Amino acid sequence: MDEFVLNIKTNNTSGVKQRKTVFHPCDAKKSSDVPTPQIPVKKVKLKAKRNDDRITRKNLRSKSSPSTANPLQFVYKSGEPHSSSRDGRTDEVTGGERISALMQTTVEPRIEPVFSEELWKPFCDSLGVHSFITSCLVDRFKLTRLTAIQKEAIPHLLEGKDCLIRAQTGSGKTLAYAVPLFHQLMSLEPPISRTDGTLALIILPTRELATQTFEVFQLLGKACVRIVPGCLIGGMKRKSQKVSLSKGLNILIGTPQRILDHILRSVNLSLSKLLYLVIDEADRLLEMGFEQSVRRIIDHIREVSNAVGKAQSLQTVLLSATLTPGVEKLAGLTLRQPVRCVVRETDAHSSGPSSPRVNGTCEAAGEFVMPTGLKHYILVVPWKLRLSALAAFLLLKCRYHKGGGKLIIFMATQDSVDFHYQLFKTVLVSDDEEFAIPIEVANLSLFRLHGKMEHNERESVFHSFCTSKSGILLTTDVASRGLDLAGVAWVVQYQVTGGPVDYVHRVGRTARAGGRGKALLFLDNMELGFADLLRARAGIVFEELSLADLMQTALFHVRHMKRNGLQLNSCTTVEEGVSRFFGLFLDAVCEDPVLHPLAEVAYTSFLRSYASFSGELRTFFTFKRLHLGHVARAFCLQATPRDIAARVSGRFSSKFEKSKKEKNVKINEIGDRKQSAPTDKKRAFELAFDPKPSSRNTKRAKPTDIAKRNMLAEFGL
Q1: Quick one: pLDDT at residue 321?
Q2: Backbone φ, ψ for residue 377 (5° rounding)
Q3: Mean pLDDT of 687-693
Q4: pTM of the complete model beyond 0.70
Q5: Which of 147, 262, 361, 511 could form a disulfide with 371 if both were Cys (CB 3.0 to 4.6 A apart)?
Q6: Which residue stretches belong to region Disordered (predicted)?
Q7: What distance in Å separates the CA atoms of residue 549 and residue 79, rounded to the nearest whole number?
């Protein structure tokens, strides 16, 4: 069976270590009749120009031919300096030129154990947990051992203490508070029923995370059918949610805005009997701007609890993957003498009782926890080759590698997700593709997920991706927190949008619960300082992939693909193969009347996102140093950036003018004040608004009504 070897390129100045791995890109049928010609690569020196958009050998750094006849064999060259895509100069990456003294210090990554040595059944029996819950965990969840954070937190929660839980993503924090919650509710006398109202409230940042948590509680609720959980999230009809509230929900799971909406508008939601409050993913709640909503919910709970004299009986749990100052401040508002449950490296394998820190100081804000089975890779690629590199990576991992698992690709904006989804669906997922050699290829399953999608579509995509064995999910940061997506092999950060905290949470979608996973970061040469920042803050050491070797996948694809009139085996070099490979995407955008506008909108939205970097991140992601023409090539646009911006702004302004005219007509129809436009501009105000002597008895609209109509018209209502 053919194999190809990756000798990862090394860069001693950026903390990159050397690694040699063997990949199996595809399970090709063994046939002696299939020719595997050698790919010659000529050594030609080309002068790089600033505004040259051609696929050059300078960009691809290809200097030697493959060592075997397999066209998919990747041979990496180590010890080469990076080449700038802007001016053609070769400059070695030195941390002193890009980062401060803080970033030059070596930081060891904080490694936390995931699983402990405790088994669920003896552990629950020793703590007196209800036998129905233990049976449900073992029989339905198929669990054997506790995670370290579960072993640390469950005993204190069973004692009724407030807890501040901090652990890495994918460590089982949901069951850490769900098991004590169910045990306490099942132990109440007299036994509760759904008519007793809401006794537990769980607040989460996103709909997908709330839905996932609700499914866990539904499965755990099989242990006691008298306890009824419910979910309140946006995108669902309020009327159906009000009906469920009127029937009674003992455990309420939802997002802040929808919970607050029902608190203010629904008389059926009463939190006066609340016994259990959980704030999950607290750092994400604060980052998404839900601080005021959470505070209002907490104030309401305090108000109704004080009115009935049950303020001291409320147990509060706050969970976060990172303990930032904002999370500490929120903990000070909600928790009373909390126990800090933080897993240490000795906790998982210690035979004695654990000793969590009580009322201790928080870790440093720059301390992050990384899964032990996660490996980090970096791909340095100029902007004009970034789209080709991503497409080649998807083909390598998903089409020519059977059983490659799932991939998650994070992008900066919703428009970028929509554009790349349609582009890859048009070019890579095609029914008319045929290959000249007998090779087994896998079908590409594309998914997209972002906040602008309808709720039903988001829920359908989320469940489809969770249940599929393979697939590619294009998403924004809406999927970067808390979601338990099984089988994710790679997390690709195609466009950076945040700092080390965002990076840690994004890569946390893989290597969950002690598993293994890989993360790939796309960076331009001028953005390499961000890798040094991650090394200084989180102790992340990257292994660098070679762009030239990755692009041989594109060469193999165009050499053996029967499509669009391409002549088989017509490409002989990597550069020519990449040029034709990119031409497939370029032609698709130019010929498709839907893709081209999507590309322009995605391009402008990405530039706005890139220009929004502030603080220390602006040092590495500087908008003034960004080559706008090369970025346009990454979106398959051939026009100048000025022309693209003019078309997009003109398109938006025309829509605005059209909606403005419709709004004015609607207001005139509602107010029954249809008037012809005045010809004299000086008399415009007088003619339009001064009452005429003959219309004194006409009923005029009130100013409040006019303001209300303007507001409704603005939203198209």
Answers
A1: 77
A2: -125, 155
A3: 43
A4: no
A5: 511
A6: 46-95, 686-705
A7: 15
Other beta carbons less than 10 A from residue 664's beta carbon? 12
Q: Which of 80, 61, 12, 69 is nearest to 550 (CA)?
A: 61
**Cα(first)–Cα(last) distance of the chain, in Å?**
63
Q: Write the DSSP string, 165-210.
A: EE--TTS-HHHHHHHHHHHHHHT-SSPP-GGG---EEEE-SSHHHH
Residue whose tokens read 């990454």: 634
Residue intervals of the chain classified under CATH 3.40.50.300 are: 4-98+372-638, 112-356
Residue 274 has pLDDT above 80, yes or no: yes
Q: Tell me the CATH class for 4-98+372-638.
A: alpha beta
Confidence tier at 390 by pLDDT (50, 70, 90): very high
Cα(312)–Cα(302) distance, integer angstroms = 10
Phi, psi of 587, rounded to the nearest 5 degrees: -65, -40
* pLDDT at residue 256 greater than cutoff 90: yes
Lowest mean pLDDT, pick from 264-268, 277-281, 314-318, 387-391: 264-268
Q: Is the pLDDT of residue 79 over 80?
A: no
Query: What is the DSSP secondary structure assignment for residue 44, as one 8-state letter?
Result: -
| Other residues' Cβ atoms within 10 Å of the Cβ of residue 238 | 15
Q: How many CB atoms are closer than 10 A to CB 436?
A: 13
Residue 245 has pLDDT above 90, yes or no: yes
- For residue 408, list its beta bridge partners: 473, 491
* CATH number for the segment(s) 112-356: 3.40.50.300
Dump the DSSP string for 647-690.
HHHHHHHHHHHHHHHHHHHHHHHHHT---PPPS-GGGHHHHHHS
pLDDT tens, 502-551?
Answer: 888 888 888 776 678 899 999 999 999 999 999 888 888 899 999 999 99
Sign of CA dihedral 444, 449, 453, 455: positive
What is the DSSP secondary-structure string of 418-466? HHHHHHHHHHTS-TT-EESS----PPP-EEEE-TTS-HHHHHHHHHHHH
Q: Can you tell me which residue has the tokens 């989320």?
A: 462
For residue 352, give the DSSP letter: S
pLDDT tier at 695 (50, 70, 90 boundaries)? Answer: very low
Give the Cα separation of 237 and 233 in Å (integer). Answer: 9
Neighbours of 462 (CB within 10 A): 22
CB 628 within 8 A of CB 656: no
- Say which DSSP state 252 is in: E
| Strands 517-523 vs 488-493: parallel, antiparallel or unpaired | parallel
Answer yes or no: are the C-beta atoms of 414 and 476 closer than 8 Å.
Answer: yes
Q: Strand 200-203 and strand 276-279: pairing?
A: parallel
- Give the Cα separation of 83 and 91 in Å (integer): 6
Residue 581: in which H helix or E strand, if any?
A: helix 574-591
Main-chain dihedrals φ then ψ at residue 20, nearest 5 degrees:
-120, 120
User: How far is the C-alpha of 468 from the C-alpha of 445, rounded, in Å?
Assistant: 9
Give the pair of three-digit tokens for residue 181: 């919650």
Of 600 and 687, more confident: 600
Structure confidence by residue, pLDDT tens digits, 440-480: 566 788 999 998 888 888 888 888 888 888 889 999 988 77
